[in-house]
Specification:
Largest sheet: 10 strands, mixed
Distance between the termini: 39 Å
Number of helices: 5
Amino acid sequence: MKYQIKQANELTEKEIEHILQLWEVSEWNTMKPDYFRSFFKDSEFHLLLDTTEAILAIIRVNFDFTLKIEGEEYTFAEVVGFVATHRKKGYGSELIQYFMENVRERNMETIGFCHSELRPFYEKFEIEILYDKAKMIMENTGSEWVNSDDDDILIFKVSEERKKLLSQLSTENNAYLITKE
């Protein structure tokens, strides 16, 4: 098995097609490779590949992720799109280990999110979890601000100062997801 990092413009058409199948996002099913590369230009893709270069597991890192907390904007690398091609084969676990090592080497401020039922998976890698704090992140739907549908914030690598800010989120102290137009 091989660990590889690719930018969106380095992915082959076959890889893009496979990634979209793995993600199972219906509105992305018809996305063409050129549009995919443009849409995910602020992302990098961490891949676990088999000997034939087929994708076994993937993590997308979104570098266009900013939270406004207490009037200040904080940018993080956001872990999204984490999926393995086959469940219970260890591919996701192996990719997470490579990924965590890479994040530490690069000293990259990185967070992710999960639903409560996935806690045990992340806990076994000793990834710090800020339980029930993701719900305190407000997202703009265009007409109103709504709570994130994730439960927890995953701390892959974050400074103590930023970790403290995230851990203090509450219904009285929300974070707001800032999207660029």
